[in-house]
Amino acid sequence: MLEQIIILFIALAVLVWSADKFVFGASSLASNLGVSPMVIGLTIVAMGSSAPEMMVAATASLQGNTDTAIGNAIGSNITNIALVLGITALFQPLSVSSNTVKRELPLILGVTVLACIVLYNLYFSFAEGLLLIALFFTYIFGLLIITLRKRKSNQGIDDPMVIEAEQDVPEPVNISRSVIWLIVGMILLPVSASFLVDSATFIAKAFGISDLVIGLTIIAIGTSLPELAASLVSIWKKEDDLAMGNIIGSNIFNILAVLPIAALIQPGELDPLAAYRDSMYMLAVTIFLFILCFSRKKGFFRITRFKGALLLLCFIAYQALLFTS
Asked: Which CATH number goes with the domain that contains 183?
């Protein structure tokens, strides 16, 4: 048992590290090929924090552990809002003025409702997976079109989140080193994800825990570490808009790009708890975040330390619900 626990944490560390190197290699290669920093920041770098979830979902689905894949996507969204944003706000209250973030708040609420509807019939079909993936590419395309149109206008781009995302693109290295890091990430991501899923499944069976719960807890928290690190670095740099944007964007990616992987690889029946307990809790914390973001002050909203503490309590309550039900 101790051996499997050690393997799990090593695999988790390698998964997060290799995802970072994959994103670095991909963004550096894109820079060398002439792709603008703004496009890289809004696509490759933004999606990079969800790379661990995507790889775990694919690996778990290929091994027949669909509940782990679905639990990882749902659990990561709950963790991002309740734990990551809660801890971030406790460190430093967030003041967000980005129009992009304001536009994505109703969007994340909408796609969360859609996810609950899709899962409610307890069968996740291939067609439903295709629908979510199609919406994901529509979202990325729409985000780029809106941003590029503003860039081409005389007014340019003045959205704080877009500016901060562009500035946070890592400095590129030469093409050969970019390709090396890209290959390293591509190799280690699936290998570490495979070890992670195997060890997590072993531990779950040993303790009598379902695949769903292991995906909702250990794996979800572990794969959300990049979001936590990115958010803490962002507030240290006084980039509040980017900190919030990372969390909102990651949750959109988890629903539209991570969740459907299970249906595309292994469509089938779901654990009723995933549809009736966990997805509903995900919807509840998303609605709660939407309510907390309302502010009397025009032009921006604030996530205060008190609001961060409330979110953290939501996370603690969810963990208690999982292990007592």
From this structure: 1.20.1420.30
Q: Give me the number of domains the chain comprises.
A: 1
Residue 142 has pLDDT above 60, yes or no: yes
- Output the DSSP codes for 123-142: EE-HHHHHHHHHHHHHHHHH
Contact predicate 253/259, CB 8 Å: no
Least Cα distance to 96 among 236, 232, 295, 283 occurs for: 295
Residue 45 near residue 165, CB atoms below 8 Å:
yes
Please name the residues in contact with 316: beta carbons below 8 A apart, sequence gap of 6 or more: none
Q: What is the mean pLDDT of the chain?
A: 82
Cβ neighbours of residue 177 closer than 8 Å, sequence gap 6 or more? 28
Could you list the residue range(s) of the whole structural domain that residue 22 is in?
Answer: 2-324
- Summarised one tens digit per residue, pLDDT across range 91-132 is 888 887 767 677 778 889 999 999 999 999 999 999 999 999
Collapsing DSSP to helix, strand or coil, 33 comes out as: coil
